[in-house]
Amino acid sequence: MKQFLWGTLLALVCVLSAGFAVEIAQADKPDDWVNVVVLDGPQSVTVEKGSILRVTGSTPSGGVIQTSISGKGKLHRQTRLSTYRDGHPLIGALMMEFEIEATDPGELTILVSKQTFDRTLKPTVEKYVVTVK
Question: Which residues, if any, are the signal sequence (predicted)?
């Protein structure tokens, strides 16, 4: 009877540890793969539906960076970027990153407007034209 109990206990431990190993292996895998297209400077490109387009804007501190999207896409994420060196934040520039999802086939236009702290100057506008397949 004692051997039966030890055998049952050992089998139970093996089954439970195998279940945890499967969970750990699954936790390391991404749910979905995403195609990210980084646009470096104003340009025209063609991408597939579902792609994420990443555009970045930079202006001196005190400035404002905005984006407007028209056509077959939507703003997925807007991020303010901070750069650290030797454990301290670098000052002097505002950097923003915009991720736009290409939702449907057609044309998508992205405008990134950068206004410096000097409001007497006109904002700089970068235009990205994207064709979504």
Answer: 1-27
The two beta strands, 52-60 and 124-132, are unpaired
Domain ranges of the chain: 1-31, 36-132
**Residues in CB range of 132: below 8 A, 6 or more apart:** 46, 47, 48, 49, 51, 72, 73, 102, 103, 104, 105, 106, 107, 108
pTM value?
0.71
Which value, to the nearest 10 degrees, does the dihedral of the CA atoms of residues 109, 92, 79, 106 take? 10
Q: Does domain 36-132 have CATH number 2.60.40.2020?
A: yes
pLDDT tens by residue, 43-90: 889 999 999 999 999 998 889 999 999 999 999 999 999 889 999 988
Q: How far apart are CA 67 and CA 76, in angstroms?
A: 12
pLDDT in tens, 93-118: 899 999 999 999 999 999 999 999 88
